Amino acid sequence: MARIRDKRKKAEIISLEQAVKTFMHDGIVCAFSGFTGFNRNPFAFAWETARQGVKNLHVLDRHGSQCTWLLNAVEAIKIFETNWMGWGEMAGKLDMNLQRNYKAGKMILEDYSHGATAMRFLAGAVGAPFIPYYAPLGSDLYNPKYDSLGKAGLRDGKNPRIAKKKFIQMEDPFYGDGDVILVPAARPELAIIHVAQCGEKGTARWRGVSTIDKEIAFASDKVIILAEEVVSEAELRKTPEANQIPFFTVDAIVECPWGAFPSSVPFYYDYDAPFMREMDKASRTPEDIKKWLDEWVFGPANWEDFVIKLGAKRLLDLKADSVSGYSSRMLRGKVPPPRMTLPLSVIRSGY
User: Fold this and answer.
1) How many other β-carbons are positioned within 10 Å of the β-carbon of residue 108?
2) Minimal CA–CA distance to 214: which of 317, 125, 306?
3) H helices within the chain, ranges in order?
4) SS3 state at 46
5) Domains in the chain, CATH or no CATH each
6) What are the distances in angstroms from CA 213 to CA 33, 118, 262, 290?
7) Segment 268-277, tens digit of pLDDT
């Protein structure tokens, strides 16, 4: 049956703790925003989820992230449908928490390609039950013997958020252009999207890499926006073309400065590669990850306390400049990047 959004929502501004308590529950099917482990990961939300002890999560992910790294560290993810088992290219790449849990039989991994994942969320966003996609042809990702959810007996139709089939291969019935793969729509219960700015009614925007966050928001039943700052709705509507998420899709707003740390929010702050490497180092053994969790997750009183613990020097070094959107103080290699002496448009184009 087609899913129709027939009611306009009225978003409310709530605290991080209240958002997790209200919208998260054991066994929820959820999706996180951002691009890999480097861009707009709603890490604060995953951090609070871990603190509140939510378990048996079913995560539909565009790829691994800071969020899934942390939730795997506390063994909160039961089903993970994704296209990359990593979490950060500059921090070990492979999620060692995920690897440990998977090898121990504590979670189910369902693997799609990057493109198929995007197409699944696009189908969910437009309300279609499935979408055709040519790229999977010939890939073993779409071999029935590698259907993890099917092998676990979960494609029996009892859960409306798990498709009865991982894919269907069929002949193009319209133009006769050979076989095509049909992939099922992604239908999360909850999307958690971190943005730069959000209006008090829920209109949201960001700059930089968008990935498929808009599609994730439209595909999900409920949407929580974490924002670096809540601003006037009227101000955002002066330039409506810059807004990506409309207010009528949003259920709750959380003003959460530095809420994407240690990933970046372009034009607000850069990603913290050294901190990420420490995270990866800690994840190599159960003993070390427990120490890290005790210090950084369960030790601080709240997210504000976490940010205070990071220290002013670290935060100032990560602060992005208003021209490039990146930090000019953070080391990239052995030296900081040179400060720009030409307009960005000239540097990029060469003339």
Assistant:
1) 17
2) 125
3) 16-23, 43-51, 66-73, 96-103, 114-126, 148-151, 213-219, 233-236, 273-282, 286-296, 303-310, 312-318, 344-349
4) helix
5) 12-255 (3.40.1080.10)
6) 6, 10, 19, 32
7) 999 999 999 9
Angle, in degrees to the nearest 10, between helices 286-296 and 273-282: 130
- Token duo for residue 90: 């500059």
Residue listed under structure tokens 């030790």: 299
Please give the span between the terminal C-alpha atoms of the chain, in angstroms, as a whole number: 54
Handedness of CA 30, 104, 148, 109 (dihedral sign): positive
- pLDDT score at 323: 83
Closest CA to 24 of 298, 252, 301: 252
Structure tokens of 201?
A: 């009614």
User: In terms of residues, how long is the chain?
Assistant: 351
Compute the chain's Rg from CA coordinates. Answer: 21
220: closest CA among 193, 184, 182? 193
Angle between helices 43-51 and 16-23 (to 10 degrees): 70
267: pLDDT confidence band, cut at 50, 70 and 90? Answer: very high
Q: What residues are paired with 253 via a beta bridge?
A: 13, 225
